[in-house]
Amino acid sequence: MDAVAETFSFALSVTAPIFLTLLVGYGLARVKLLSDSFVDDASKLVFLVTLPALLFFNIFGSDARLGDEWPLLLAGLIGTVLTVPLAWVFARPLEYGDRSAFIQGAFRGNLGIIGLAWAANAYGPHGLAQAALLMAVITIFYNVAAVSLFAVYSQKARFSWKKLGVDILRNPLIVAIVLALIAKGVGLKLPQMIVQTGDYLASVTLPLALLCIGASLDLSMLRRSSFGAFVASGFKLFAVPLVLLGVGFLFQLDGQAMAILFLLAATPTASASFIMARALGGNSQLAANIIAISTLFSIVTASLGLALLKVYLP
């Protein structure tokens, strides 16, 4: 009995602080202590400065190496690719114009903030470095798949593959990860004052980003959510982790790698899915509903899943 309690306590210690910080952000926004303009500016700061700093200095200073992590990265990529056609099957009963938002909401997780935060809480700097490498690989696929979906299902979408490639190469998160790997590979030595400055910037990333996500949530949308939004959220929180864990099992990943794979797979739908749906002519209301539902219930599904993994893959 004590072992069971300890296992669930570990799982909650990973997920609950993240969820509570989201609620604090939500509450501060409701009492007007976090304005829309602050959230917009802070979100840009996180994406362009502090999160790249977190990724760069964590990977640069960790013992995680790209060559050692290829089974985890390949399992994550293959599993994510497999979820897209499965989500497409579930989207078939929906109206044609709603399918892009449904499919993207069903497979695109919030890896950069919630996924990294869960990994850091569970396994410290090494787990965060593993998650960052996995995030880079999956994020590239996310962007390609999402834009392709809206090109197929939306009459308003206008894009070029060249522009998509440039956007991926200029993504600050991917650039930071690549630079960190290069710096590690050539044995670069950074002055301590640079490292300490990077640590200062990195330390504000997750709390600030989580507060912004919480402030952006509109839980009133739950009352207006459609059946499709609940199905997409269920797919994201149950089917996606199961598929990725199945692939990880085939790759014979160790317990920690399986847990990292699960934590990133079990994240709620990314806010970027709403932004892209609105920009490319998809059903942005459906996208917003999926984000709200999956965020609310992810604390339960992620905690239970991590506890089960801890029992069966210690």
UniProtKB/TrEMBL annotation:
Domain of life: Bacteria
Keywords noted in UniProt: Cell membrane, Membrane, Transmembrane, Transmembrane helix, Transport
Transmembrane helix found in the keyword field: yes
Transmembrane segments annotated in the record for this chain: 6-29, 41-60, 72-90, 102-120, 132-153, 173-194, 200-217, 229-251, 257-277, 289-313
InterPro entries linked to this entry: Mem_transp_PIN-like, Na+/solute_symporter_sf
UniProt topology in membrane: Multi-pass membrane protein
Cell location: Cell membrane
Pfam families assigned: Mem_trans
UniProt record similarity statement: Belongs to the auxin efflux carrier (TC 2.A.69) family.
Name by which UniProt lists this protein: AEC family transporter
